[in-house]
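Narrative summary of target 7.
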Amino acid sequence: MIQKVVPVIIALGVVILINLLAHLLHMRFDLTEDNRYTLSEPALAAVNGFNNPVIVDVLLDGNLPAEFLKLKSETRQILEEFAAKNNTIKFNFVNLLENTAQIEGTLTDLQALGLTPTQVTVENSGKISQEIIFPWAMVNYNNKTVKVPLLKNTLGATTEERVNNSVQHLEYAFSDAFTKIAIREKKQVAIIKGNGELDDIYMADFLTSLRDYYNIGAITLDSVVTNPQNTLNQLKGYDLAIIAKPTEAFSDEEKYVLDQYIVNGGKSIWLIDMVNIELDSLFNEQGSALAVPRELNLDDFFFKYGIRINTDLVNDMYFTQIVLATGEGNESQYNPVPWYY
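Modeled conformation, tokenized:
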């Protein structure tokens, strides 16, 4: 009898020991071929520099629909991975809508902070109701706070599909937030103006995202004519210059100033379109237009750096469709058509 009981006791002891170790030590084995559940090197680098406590408040708690319980679970796991790499990272889950008497005030305060809620339709015992959920996290470090959207909005997707897509996005969302909050001194980026570059309205979304990481200023090259040295000195105060789709030719003086900026260690991003054909050119009776080369007087400038830009149109097989109107008056129809360029 004793001989039969001893193995059972040993087995139970092993199981209990494994459970204790699993509770004390956070370990997660990634057996997928593409290591989808392993933090990438850039993600790990984002948390290496923290010496003071990093507090992450996740606004996903309370009575959640099943899809959001999965998002909550995956968020917890990804934060445990980050915390295992740097123990200064602490996180907790918060239900800000727990106090029903102050829900309206809480909703107003959260939306004032830029935390937009998500309404989810919940069916329970044949009854359909609308639940308000704030799928956000707040990363706090040294009196700085960064908002982290946990739910990616995809047009036409179901709630389950949105949550599944969001789970794959969690690593980037948190590593990006850790990167932003760890920035001590932002580098300087200059937006070059004066040669018919894109208006700010066409760059607004890009510039808004860029401001989280860099300080942005504008420099106009018009002053090169009267005081080229002063323009160059101003430009040297920036780490990067962005020239976004110029449409007017550069003078030799402007090219010289930009060349000296680059020679002295300045970096630049050139967004060049050498063909003059715009979308609104198609809004005519024929529905067609002629593409012509755009003369920017930059061939010799780029040639020094071993670059030549051809005046070609490139077919894009993954195009975004555009909408064109056909017919007149009440018979007008708006149809999506391929835009390969």
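Residues 159-182 form the longest helix (24 residues).
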